[in-house]
Amino acid sequence: MNHGKPVFELHPNERRVQALASADPRMGRLIALIGSLATKPQGPLFTELARSIISQQISVKAASTIRGRVIELAGELSPAALLAQSDTDLRAAGLSASKVAYLKDLSDKVRSGQIDLDRLQEHDDEEVIEKLVSIKGIGRWSAEMFLIFALGREHVVSYGDAGLQRAAKWVYDMEERADRKYLQQAATRWPSYGSIASLYLWESINRGHVDSGETFSERLNGVQID
């Protein structure tokens, strides 16, 4: 893994993006609307998992503050550094008791070799998910985010992600469903590049398109939708 660089740097004229746009014309219109995008650079794999645990169910600002305190206490986010800290000191840094237990479990499994992060790329998506959810505090959604943003897997669709469901409903102009499975309908159109489609759907929220009050067609200023 080449840390410090975005896992995905996507451009409308890139082969994978063009293949997705050709297979799904409506996604192609979304790609044309958004243009290029890139994911944030990722750090070491252990650091990303630890950050994921720290960030659960709190605001981005609070997570950043607590992460900074933990790094100040431990010196770094590494298995040895975290295991060397007492639960009391980690709680004083702002972590809940459950998150302290989760970080210690992650650290112990990585240090003992039970989870070999450097060899995760050798496994398929479901095998990686199975290994990650064996860590306390890591559920399927967190494992899927790790697959996309840390490992750069190209065909991951996180059906439990509420944002993706909402964006899919908007882009594909879907009727209300009691089961909220808009993404399941849309994903059948994506050949091998579910992660890339997901990144464009998330970006449609980030850039204010989904919550603009306009339909997808209106947002495109009258561009014909197939």
TrEMBL record:
The keyword DNA damage applies. Its EC number is 3.2.2.21. SMART domains: ENDO3c. Keywords: DNA damage, DNA repair. It is an enzyme of class 3 (hydrolase). SUPFAM superfamilies: DNA-glycosylase. It holds the Pfam family HhH-GPD. InterPro entries: Alkylbase_DNA_Glycosylase/TA, DNA_glycosylase, HhH-GPD_domain. Signal peptide: none annotated. Transmembrane segments: none annotated. It catalyses: Hydrolysis of alkylated DNA, releasing 3-methyladenine, 3-methylguanine, 7-methylguanine and 7-methyladenine. Residues 54-215 form the HhH-GPD domain. This is DNA-3-methyladenine glycosylase II. It comes from Paenibacillus rhizolycopersici.
